[in-house]
């Protein structure tokens, strides 16, 4: 799995985000549309696209998009 | 003696909390966003003097009137609530008295949330098919608004108060019940909870402090707390297997079910379920816009409207699926003949 597709799927999941505005080092905190609803849509996206469950704790531990990608990638093995 | 669903009615308290009012209180969530994401426009909220038994009695009075049912024929009252009138006595006994149901009727409360209606139908089936009752009045009534802190945006936008009454009888039914599949996982207890005020953490006379949980959500232990992402994960893990198990127990395939009535948690949850289980959207019934999440009442209220709108033709196979606080879950089949 590659991070560019992951970022695209992330942007598809988060309502109102400008496509192409996110990169691996983007902090979730800095995403304007990041709220509790966005967190749910991302959990849903990871489940439907990768068959992986991530918890709210996982999201809290990830500062950047890349850190989340790494967690999902590790669980996919 | 087969148990059969005979009639459903429901009641909502008159006071409405609409999205405009919520958007004024929480400007970061405009009214359109609430509708778009949660699928809710209005919820009904009890006034201070109104208890779950009041909602329950009203829903039962409507049932008796709309379907010309004599309360003297009821021989069992099942009352599901998580906000009883008193710690004791049993609220179902108060309801029996107020409705003029004979004293030779059984009556009990059971404490469940979103899985409560399906459990109630299963219990009613058991009472009838064991020959212990002939006409069971199942009432689900919830007043979560009593537990909700005014500053807790997430639960204030979701939950509404309401009650539904259902008659389950034993005549050769037009809508036979069963099988039922149940599940419980107490590991999820802390994710949907009113921590203080009962025996484990009694009220001290001092209010709990306001705080934020790790994700930045409002939290006060005297009030309802819900961890949205954890509940969502629970649903993702549990519902597909529950639906599968219920299909196998009934020797049905997914395509054999004509209508699914899930607990109407919120639009986002139902969208996820629909997609994950690959249920055609015209087979997944939705009714939540004008009522919100009424906990144990969501399924009977939705079923009432599905019947009213002609979404359940005869014959039909309907699957009800309830899940949530506890964690607790249950699914059951109704065969409409």
Structure description:
The complex is a heterodimer of chains A (77) and B (337). Chain A has 77 residues and is mainly alpha-helical. Chain A has helices spanning 3-13, 36-50, 56-61, 65-76. The longest helix of chain A has 15 residues, at 36-50. In chain B, 31% of the residues lie in helices and 25% in strands. Chain B is built from nine helices and 15 strands. Chain B has helices spanning 19-25, 31-38, 52-66, 91-99, 116-129, 153-158, 228-249, 267-277, 298-308, and strands at 4-11, 15-18, 42-45, 76-80, 106-110, 136-142, 162-169, 175-184, 192-194, 211-212, 218-219, 224-226, 259-262, 316-324, 328-336. Chain B has a five-stranded mixed β-sheet, sandwiched between helices. In chain B, helix 1 (19-25) crosses helix 2 (31-38), helix 3 (52-66) packs parallel to helix 4 and helix 7 crosses helix 8. Chain B is globular and about 55 Å long. The chains are: A mainly alpha (77), B alpha+beta (337). The A-B interface holds A 15, 35-37, 39-41, 43-44, 47-48, 53, 55-57, 59-60 and B 28, 33, 36-37, 154, 214-217, 227-230, 232-233, 236-237, 268, 272, 275-276.
Largest sheet of chain B: 5 strands, mixed
* Count of individual beta strands of chain B: 15
Beta strand % of chain A? under 5%
CA(first)-CA(last) distance of chain B? 16 Å
Summarize this structure as a short list of keywords or feature phrases:
heterodimer; A: 77 residues; mainly alpha; 57% helix; 0% strand; globular; B: 337 residues; alpha+beta; 4-stranded mixed sheet; 9 helices; 15 strands
């Amino acid at each position: 799995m590659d991070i560019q597709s992951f970022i695209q799927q992330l942007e598809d999941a988060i309502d109102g985000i400008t496509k192409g505005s996110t990169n691996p080092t983007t902090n979730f905190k800095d995403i304007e549309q990041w709220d509790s609803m966005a967190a749910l849509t991302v959990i849903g996206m990871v489940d439907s696209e990768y068959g992986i469950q991530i918890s709210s704790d996982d999201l809290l531990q990830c500062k950047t998009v890349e850190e989340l990608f790494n967690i999902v990638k590790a669980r996919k093995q | 003696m087969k148990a059969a669903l005979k009639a459903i009615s429901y009641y909502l308290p008159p006071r409405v909390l609409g999205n405009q009012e919520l958007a004024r209180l929480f400007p970061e969530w405009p009214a359109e966003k609430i509708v778009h994401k949660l699928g809710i426009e209005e919820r009904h909220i009890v006034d201070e003097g109104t208890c779950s038994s009041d909602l329950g009695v009203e829903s039962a009075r409507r049932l008796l009137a709309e379907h010309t049912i004599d309360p003297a024929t009821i021989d069992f009252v099942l009352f599901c609530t998580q906000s009883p009138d008193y710690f004791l006595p049993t609220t179902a006994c108060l309801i029996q008295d107020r409705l003029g149901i004979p004293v030779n009727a059984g009556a009990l409360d059971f404490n469940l949330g979103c899985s409560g209606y399906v459990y109630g139908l299963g219990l009613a089936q058991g009472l009838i098919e064991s020959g212990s009752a002939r006409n069971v009045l199942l009432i689900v009534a919830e007043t979560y608004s009593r537990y909700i802190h005014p500053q807790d945006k997430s639960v204030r936008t979701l939950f509404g108060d309401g009650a539904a009454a259902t008659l389950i009888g034993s005549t050769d039914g037009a809508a036979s019940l069963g099988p039922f599949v149940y599940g419980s996982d107490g590991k999820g207890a802390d994710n949907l909870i009113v921590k203080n005020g009962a025996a484990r953490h009694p009220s001290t006379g001092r209010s709990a402090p306001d705080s934020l949980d790790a994700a930045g959500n409002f939290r006060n232990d005297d009030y309802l707390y819900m961890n949205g992402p954890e509940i969502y994960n629970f649903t993702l893990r549990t519902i597909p297997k529950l639906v599968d198990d219920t299909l196998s127990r009934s020797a049905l395939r997914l395509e054999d079910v004509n209508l699914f009535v899930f607990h109407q948690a919120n639009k986002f949850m139902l969208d996820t379920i629909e997609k994950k289980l690959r249920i055609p959207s015209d087979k997944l019934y939705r009714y939540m816009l004008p009522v919100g999440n009424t906990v144990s009442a969501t399924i009977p209220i939705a079923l009432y409207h599905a019947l009213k709108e002609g979404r359940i033709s005869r014959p039909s196979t309907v699957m009800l699926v309830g899940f949530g606080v506890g964690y607790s879950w249950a699914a059951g089949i109704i065969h409409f003949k």
